[in-house]
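Here is one chain, start to finish.
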Amino acid sequence: MNRELRLTRAFVDLADTLPASFDPLDPFARLGGHCTELLAVDAVGVVMADSRGALRNMVASDDDLLLLDLFQVQQEEGPSVDCFRTGEVVAADDLREGARWPRYTAQALEAGYVSVHVLPLRLEGRPIGAVSLLKREADALPTEDLAVAQGMSDVAALTLTHWPTEARRPHDLLTSLQAAVSAKASVELAKGLLAEYAGISFGEALELLRRHAEQRGRSLTSVARALAERSLAPEDVVTRQPRLS
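Its structure:
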């Protein structure tokens, strides 16, 4: 399959909000997958602001990046923080050559990341978060790749306006953002419950949640909330599925 066709399919996939099981976290997970598949990057992360403007982690393609994004959000230092504040692309082709974000840079290099490019996550003409593209070698991303990543990021953000939330007012941006952040918090809580119950990693717990949701045609968030509210028992998620390999 040539790159043009793959790009077309990626944009169609990102814009798809029709399934009954559509979840506000889906576009960000899809965005990360398409970026790592189509672009010359090793990791992709998405942070998004809640209704008070505080950045929250939404997606990280690996655990190293998850910890790095949590660090920069907590310390309020790093390229994603700068990108969100300015609404402009932030890039460092080689983190070893500068001290723009000393604490972030030390953490990134320790995790094996050498270059980073961050694009604004935009909705209704304003930044609502940031998308980070990282590589484990010094390199500048081609202008074409940055344009593709920005386009996919814009489409992923736009899908939030099509997600029907409770007490949602038409085109209410703050409600959309808070609903997505709340959905993420529910999933993290459910992951912790399953991980503790089954003695598995958070990654394995997330996979079990996804399988359970897919098999029953439900959204990931609805399954996570059912676990948190005790209307779904952890054993029903763990024991009724094949063991993870």
